[in-house]
Amino acid sequence: MKIEQLHALFLQCDSVCTDTRKIKKNNLFFALKGENFNGNTYAEQALKNGAKYAIIDEVQFNTSSKTILVKNVLETLQELAAYHRTQLNIPIIALTGSNGKTTTKELINATLSKSYKTTATVGNLNNHIGVPLTLLSMTTSTQIGIVEMGANHQKEIEFLCNIAKPDYGYITNFGKAHLEGFGSIEGVIKGKSEMYDFLTNNNKTIFVNGNDMIQIEKTTHANRFVFGKNNRDFDINIDFIEALPFVKSEYNNLEIESQLIGDYNFNNIAAAIAIGNYFKVKDHDIKASIENYTPTNNRSQIIKKGTNTIILDAYNANPTSMRAALLNFEKQPNTQKTACIGDMFELGKDAEKEHQNIVDLATSLNIDQVVFIGENFYKTKTKSNKSKQFNSFNDFKDWFNGSKTENNAILIKGSRGMALERILDFI
């Protein structure tokens, strides 16, 4: 079946689904495969649950007039999304980066949705499956699309850009994330900059944080809209006021007080303000959208439990974001501070060095107690009497349950695989 024919069938459906547990009537089901599952085996169930058609790639499951046999389901999903993109007469903003992608995407979406009908990546569905699903969720009513892109190897951002064909792009930063796949910080910069290459080669526009010299240097010959602080030569100037406890900024004589902690979130807020300004969202709507945004999903959340104040930032971690979180935590105006820090994953050969660097930093800061959790942190060395190390979460839990925690500020941060939000259950 030609992609044009499949697209015509797609338009007859209400939406795309890859999980039979979430099938709704009139869905188009894609039978994707994974290491531990084969979606083809669920095609019949998907149709019974209400799917209009099921896309499969194994002939033995082609048992219905509603099953569509293709060579490769994943490649077909990607090809359909790329074709659908060509039929959408809308601007698409793509963003990537080592830290802050999802928060920045949510802020941009909140800002632009004040004036436009937007469709944005849900959660962090930002990979070779998530990006196509985001594109296929865009309809004729969508006025601006916002697509988050993640990567842990070279050429992934290039691949995703060739599917989404963005008109605008923004890279939040370049940090020590996914070093196992990228090899080094230089590899991270090269991999993320594939978005710059696509936009520059296609004469599109790049949003640039003017206070980030890597971004400035990488976009010298591009069409760019530059924002930042303390430089009136930028296209738009956004000033940082403070971040205690929440980030405050100023734009066009308007003071904006967010519900986000950490001065590292200033750049995320500034990007949303700048992009809102570029698309002519009214200043008071930009202010309202930033001030009303509340972080969720274990990202910089402030939680009160009894007499304790918890900074829950346990969605993910890498050396760059961990350093920023610890430095911000030290500044918090609380008398008693405890940091619960979990292993950072996907660091490859740099894992030992980067975990030791975090231990050295954390124990040097004005934090009363630092607790390190996980096999990597357990291997590190520290002479500090204010630190404790646990090889596993269960070992930590046994110790923590026996500790009395009151009137504390508690930072919880670690990689997704550590699931440190579990600590909330016994505070």
From TrEMBL:
It is an enzyme of class 6 (ligase). The keyword Cell wall biogenesis/degradation applies. GO terms for molecular function: UDP-N-acetylmuramoyl-tripeptide-D-alanyl-D-alanine ligase activity. The keyword DNA-binding does not apply. This is UDP-N-acetylmuramoyl-tripeptide--D-alanyl-D-alanine ligase. HAMAP family: MurF (MF_02019). Transmembrane segments: none annotated. Involved in cell wall formation. Catalyzes the final step in the synthesis of UDP-N-acetylmuramoyl-pentapeptide, the precursor of murein. It holds the Pfam family Mur_ligase. Its main location: cytoplasm. It comes from the Bacteria. It comes from Flavivirga jejuensis.
